Amino acid sequence: MTMNIPYLDLKRVTALHGEEIQQAVAEVVGSGWYLQGRALHQFEMNYAKFIGTKHCVGVANGLDALTLTLRAYKEMGKMQEGDEVLVPANTFIATVLAITENRLKPVFVDVEEETLDLNLEMLRRAITPKTKALMLVHLYGRCTYNEAIGRLCEQNGLLLIEDNAQAHGCRWRGRRTGSLGDVACHSFYPGKNLGALGDGGAVTTEDVELAEMIRTIANYGFSEKYVATKQGRNSRLDEVQAAVLDVKLKYLDEENERRAKLARIYYNNVENEAVQLPKMMNEGENVYHIFPVFVEERDRLKTYLAEKGIGTLIHYPIAPHQQECYAEYRGIEMPVTERLARKELSLPLNPTMTEEEAKWVAEMVNSFGGRNVEYQ
Length: 376
What we know:
The chain is of the alpha/beta class and 376 residues long. Helices cover 39% and strands 14% of the residues. It has helices at residues 10-15, 18-31, 38-51, 62-75, 93-101, 120-126, 147-156, 208-218, 239-249, 252-269, 298-307, 335-343, 355-367, and strands at 55-59, 84-88, 105-109, 131-137, 159-163, 171-172, 175-176, 183-187, 201-205, 222-224, 227-228, 291-294, 344-347. The protein starts with 9 loop residues before the first helix and ends in a 9-residue tail after the last helix.
């Protein structure tokens, strides 16, 4: 027996709210206003309220959100070229690209194997007089903030920048990720929990000066039309994407709850000793953008599940410090991150999946390697 369970079917995801999305897009098309109009303003207000910040600035994509934030801090005199930014070694390369594009120095910090959180002792040891910020990544949809990290940043005068690209709607003690630090950067790539129909991104913050600086730089550096006070760029969230996101935002908490229910099926039913699941978090602290498992024979498990009709992905097979473009960092050792990159496999998990499909995935994972465990 096999079942056809793709890793992610974006057509099915979009169809969940297809009529509303089509209506919203039609309204934008009919308005004749396609950039920096009503739809963007409405989404920025709604997303800021959702996250719990005063300000939201829509930009073209998640990488731009990160890059523009660091650039804005440089323009404001809070950072300068050569300053150090602490960053988890276990992250998507965009986090690091934003740092190096601003001619800042990434300082990689390894993570804990069981929790996937930053190794606090390594984080403390990495701080030098040149360290100006911590880029905290809520990878896989897991909240990686804690009181110790907050205290560490405060005691050392570090800016706390959240990379919230994978954790839309995640909570920590009643507050949303995206409101826990000085600023947060969000991606609305189509596969995200809150995904557009193309690229999109945003920055959320309480800091009005920072928000205005990002908005200026993202719009050619204009303080007013045709008056450039900064050497800016073009990075804007368009009206169509803003309208789509505003529709999907209404359902985000509900869909995250659906993800959590499916994740519990994995936690309750995957019993293959060869397959390591990440430590389960408190309710609301993980929105399960990605459900990673870790297995020595990762590639063989991937092939085995594909034969059973189950789609999987690998996040991420090469850590940033081992990429060719960052050859100068290849000499450093990040043993946990490197093991995770070698062992990680992402199981399908999205709001269109049924509980029966999740149970089937769990059963097939259990049967890998000769085991055949009944699922609950």
